[in-house]
From TrEMBL, chains A, B:
It comes from Pyrococcus yayanosii (strain CH1 / JCM 16557). Binds 2 Mg(2+) ions per subunit. Mg(2+) 2 binds at D160. The keyword Kinase applies. The keyword Translocase does not apply. Signal peptide: none annotated. Its main location: cytoplasm. Its EC number is 2.7.6.1. This is Ribose-phosphate pyrophosphokinase. The gene is prs.
Length: 279, 279
């Protein structure tokens, strides 16, 4: 049985269409701002789907009280899928006195859920903070499926070396070449990006990253590829945490921008629902 | 050392003025809506003050990441004062399928805090959900101090029998008489309220409750007291969870309305800070 939180409302239609059995829940807010949830059905095991984009704290607390309602109702095994997990970038102490906020979130979710599934977590090592079984799922199937035909015999690029595994996973599903950009300081004030060991002239290119926020790197990379003679330039990311105006800016610089539906945005055209339903 | 969360910012000036040693913290939001906190000081024990009025979920999550930052910084003992605890009225399953939301909140706070202090909790039995030591503090000192002189030799009333202990605690501090209202069905559609075993004619009256939201009960009680010849009518409550327009409506019906500063409102004239500093 699938339970759909307010942060997964945008996935409900597709989940139902693809045959997911959805357990009805009532989710609303009291006039004072407190969330109210109620589980309208029975069962022993549930897969709760709740993405935690803004207002992220509301969705985190909602996941907790949904878990409480399900336990109270007698559910024995609760699994939680969080397509986009808030606070995942607050994964280490950079300045003295900072929290590891993702640890607090993981621990709180662990109070009610036996298993946690996330997509393309910023730092997969932080899964250890979740007390139960925790898995980081790949967006590769979804991205490869969406861009496969458009790419043809193109090339898949990561914006930096750290993102290479993601690009590689997409490329290998499509039997395509892959590589990454590297940054080189060409003067005290200027850093140049260039794709490593790959010829892009006359070829379609897909750049794949985990999160797009301002989109600055993507635009820089796309402009460079254009100069190098690339044919069509596509940009994909798992999580579209777009800053104001970023969708428009990136869209203008490339042939197509698409992100997964971990967060609902106007360009969330890549669906993770089949991956969720296979859990 | 006292740590002041965003839900206790309105208490900071008084906490400092009354000699509280405040540990500096940085609390802000990232553009995507995630909270960021940073502890700017050292210590082994801290008393975190965080009231959880709206946006309540943000303040709950903030309390967790503040706790995480303090633990990471080496604090050994963390106590948490929550003057107004959100979700405290979601304390039981009224309809099948509901959560006990306050349990989820208590358990989450218990991940980081050794002790929990709240004021005038809706259902003190729910303190058992907090894994550590948990105490329900009385607003009686604060309310008695604020209204003592104004009341003179008046009487303290509870709006119903269930609220009698609170009225009694205030009255006993002032050496005054106390009683409560009772509701009596006088026709199939009409319920009459009346104060039990007390003569209010010519006397000042203070009605004390835990929460005022719409204020309907208070207004009804005040109008009745007026008819019965009461002199000055005061209304006090611990938590001013006012619905739209309620402050104005209640204020118009009584001589003075005042609530504690567990939630900052235009009538939060009764301070809990001395009680907090005595912890």
């Amino acid at each position: 049985m699938i339970v759909i939180g307010s942060g997964a409302k945008h996935l409900e239609e597709e989940i139902r269409r693809l045959g997911g059995r959805v357990l009805d829940v009532e989710i609303r807010k009291f006039p004072d701002g407190e969330k109210y949830v109620r589980v309208l059905g029975e069962g022993k095991e549930a897969l709760v789907v709740q993405s935690t984009f803004a207002p992220q704290d509301e969705r985190i607390v909602e996941a907790l009280i949904l878990g409480d309602a399900l336990r109270e109702k007698g559910f024995k095994k609760l699994r939680l899928v969080v397509p986009y997990l808030a606070y995942s970038r607050q994964d280490r102490v950079t300045k003295d006195g900072e929290p590891i906020s993702i640890r607090a979130v993981m621990r709180a979710l662990g109070l009610y859920y036996d298993e946690l599934y996330v997509f393309d977590l910023h730092n997969p090592e932080t899964l250890r903070f979740f007390p139960g079984k925790a898995l980081n799922l790949s967006p590769a199937r979804a991205i490869a499926e969406y861009f496969g035909e458009k790419l043809g015999d193109g090339v898949v690029l990561a914006p930096d070396r750290g993102a290479l595994e993601r690009a590689k996973a997409v490329a290998e599903r499509l039997g395509l070449e892959y590589s990454h950009f590297e940054k080189r300081r060409i003067s005290p004030t200027e850093i140049q990006m260039r794709p490593v060991d790959v010829d892009v002239a006359g070829r379609n290119v897909l750049i794949v990253d985990d999160i797009i926020s301002t989109g600055g790197t993507m635009i820089k990379a796309a402009n460079l590829l254009r100069e190098m003679g690339a044919r069509r330039i596509f940009v994909a990311a798992t999580h579209g945490v777009f800053a104001e105006g970023a969708i428009e800016r990136v869209s203008k610089a490339v042939d197509e921008l698409a992100v997964t539906n971990s967060i609902p945005t106007p360009v969330s055209k890549i669906s993770l629902v089949p991956d969720i339903l296979s859990l």
